[in-house]
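Quick one: examine the sequence and fold tokens given here and explain what the tokens say about the fold. Here goes:
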Amino acid sequence: MSIVTNMSSGNETENNLFGIQKELELFSAKYRLVHAYISVVLSVLGIMGNGLNIFILTRKNMISTTNILLTALSVSDVLKLLVHLPNIVLNYYIFANQPNPLGNLRYLMFYVIVVIAFHSASIWLTVSLALFRYIAIKLPLKAATYCSQYRAKLTIFIVSLAVAGLSIPISLSYSYSCSYVNNQTDWYLVMANGTDKFNFVQSFNLWTMILLIRLLPCVLLLVLSILLIIELQRFAKSRSKLRGQRSFENDGNLQRQTETNRTTGMLVVVVVLFIVIEMPHGILLLLVAINKNVMDQIYESLGDLIDDITLMNNGINFVIYCTMSKKFRDTFMEMFSCSNGKSKYLHRNT
């Protein structure tokens, strides 16, 4: 179920805005048949992957400013997935063909608020990661001050506080309603509209999601990723010069720069992946705000696919870290490689 679908104005479609409504409706009907299965698989894999991220990134040899932020990102993603999984099971399996009880609607309300909050936190933590990394490689002499572990933890606290505040208006946007089907009560969520106050809250929520949760972070990430790529290119030129002037000191500088380059490259991949997934979503939401028919004709048909693509992004970071970070990969292998039937890590800690 798409979160923003619940925020639809409910207007009836009057015309086929882009001439593809029937095709999208057909796609939506077919994709819905597999959506629940895909969501469950992606959620379980994402929970496992982020759980491993948290476990590895919190080892003593892995503690750093960057890894503190990456740990917070994994915590946010895993909590979102832990809330998402029961929602899929409840709405696509348990109550799929029977009236909704009030308890399930209360969980759905909790789900909408919490998922938006954790998703917002993940996006802004990614922005923070890119910003911290750029400062660290652009101003290396001041990195210890500007990019300290304390400031990373303070950033996590500020992001958490901000998204919690932005989530409050969402809880004011909905109310419970019910109908009676075969002598059973069927509960559902409805937009609490009809007054200027609730219309304002609805507009505030939509524009908050468009500007603060989608477009603005994507623009910042795009700028920061370009700056990071420029720094990577500058490093490549510097590495060529150091290789041409071999010495013990230069070899040490080259090794340090190579490690910095690997971490920066890994973060660029994480950032670009966020942009690729979030930017089209933000543009689509902007079209919804401009023309409500976009919600009925396009967004609702693509809602399930958008959810699954987002879930995939929530769980793919473990693969990126293993592929691009030698230190992460070595720590993972050391912790879980077996020697005489026992993990080296477990053996060391018994």
In short: The chain has a mean pLDDT of 82. The CA atoms of residues 335 and 344 lie 6 Å apart. The radius of gyration is 23 Å. The first strand starts at residue 174 and ends at 181.
